[in-house]
Amino acid sequence: MGRASGTVINGGTEIVNINGSELSAAVNSGGFLLVNSRGFLASATISSGLVEVASSLNNGSLVSFASGGGGTVQFDSAVTEAFFGVFVSGFALGDFIDFRAVGFTSGATSATWAQSGPSGTLTVSSGSTSANISLIGQYMTTNFTLSSDLHGGTVVAYQPVVPQTDLLTNPHST
Fold it and tell me: What is the 3-state secondary structure (H, E, C) of the chain?
């Protein structure tokens, strides 16, 4: 049973096994953090790295994307309820959420967003399989894009719509 805190992963790997814990990790470029079944993760910040969650995490775990950092959080299991209190924050353009257990089929795989105050639930479904996570922030279903992760699962990206200003319809813009 190991316990780590404040780990900075730059191009290396950290594995949190059964009864192990990571209290606060920074997963930077080329870094990889794997949290196995019954491992404990309090928080991780991703900046061009990968955090893989092999099964559900403890209630209250926080996985954050660093602003402008890009990166991926990968959930290996699919559940029909939220990932047991796991929260994801900072999800933006250039970041990815990989649902390995939700097979991708073009036109048949869907994402839905249910806003609830300052956060909400993202649900990704394909056939009878679905997975949910809690996202902190304001999102819209139409801005989530889905694609194959090339390993049998579904990758979610967020493509925010940037309002366009047209001088003909808005003569006051400069």
Answer: CCEECCEEECCCEEEECCCCEECCEEECCCCEEEECCCCEECEEEECCCEEEECCCCCCCCEEEECCCCCEEEEECCCCCCEEEEEEEECCCCCEEEEECCCCCCCCCCEEEEEEECCEEEEEEEECCEEEEEEEECCCCHHHEEEEECCCCCEEEEECCCCCCCCCCCCCCCC
Alpha-carbon Rg for the chain in angstroms:
17
Residue-range domain boundaries for the chain? 3-158
In 3D, which of 119, 1, 113, 111 has the Cα closest to residue 62? 119
Q: What is the mean pLDDT of each run of 10 residues along the chain (174 residues)?
A: 89 92 94 89 94 76 89 81 70 95 94 95 92 92 96 94 64 54
Structure tokens at 88: 């994801």
Query: Which residues have a Cβ under 8 Å from the Cβ of 8 and sit 6 or more positions away?
Result: 25, 26, 28
Q: Which of 8, 14, 78, 79 has the alpha carbon at shortest distance from 40?
A: 14
